[in-house]
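[agent] plan:
  1. take the single chain provided in the ticket
  2. run structure prediction with default settings
  3. attach structure tokens to the ticket
  4. add a short note for the reviewer (M.T.)
[agent] executing step 1
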Amino acid sequence: MNKKRIIVLDLASLGIGEAPDANRFNSVGVDTLGHVAAHAGKKLEIPNLIKMGLGSIRWDHEISEIPQVANPSAFYGKMVNRINTKSSGAGLREMFDFDTSLRTLSTMDLMSEKHINISMISSFASYLENQDDTFSLQVPNDSKAFVELSAQMDVQFDGLIYCQPPLLKRLSDEANVDAYAEQLSNIDAQLPNIIEDLSEDDLLIITSSFANDPSVNESITREYLPLIVFNPLNQNGKSLGIKRSSAAVSNALVQNFDIDDIKRDLKPNFLNEVL
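[agent] step 2 finished; step 3 output follows
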């Protein structure tokens, strides 16, 4: 059964280790999550992300501070970008754009054509500002982002709610590893409130539209991106493996809301694996 509402929490800048093509992007050895965890040690407190399976994504290269769990409450995996450039906007475009025979539309465009509710909460990249027929809330900090997310979840019971807390991105640009670890811990502490507000008709996707390792001298880093999907009706989480494009997110949205009239083969995707 498809979901009435999907919440996408974009922890923009959070990468989880160098991508297979890292050498082409001056990113060999990068690892946002691993380097932040190693630097912060016990100061990095993310028990909710761990419970949902964040550590289990790295089963082959475990981070001691972020262990695997035997029974994760969410589905977990990782994605790689295919786009041949490095920028935060490019990551968003790959995650939410949808190719048609005439031009490239965003998933938001297709949803608005079907009169499906869309809300976006962010400090706003230009890509997000240019989406049609969306309810947009500009937020200056993470605290405001989570206040607005909670408020929107209380009034919008269908469609898409996208939230990108802005501080992780800012701290990665500033190469402030200590503050990055602290803020990731603060975000983790917000997750129980979000999960408590979910209904059986919801799906929560936690991911990242791009990576930026604050411990290296590189503006954007080419890394695997986390994919955590929480379904209140199925909390027996399993591995989603590797999705070969972050477009797996938009493909899941397109399939869930049935907005592709041509009925293409929407791959990569994960929707059927988590329902």
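[agent] step 4 note for reviewer: The chain has one domain: 5-274.
[agent] ticket updated
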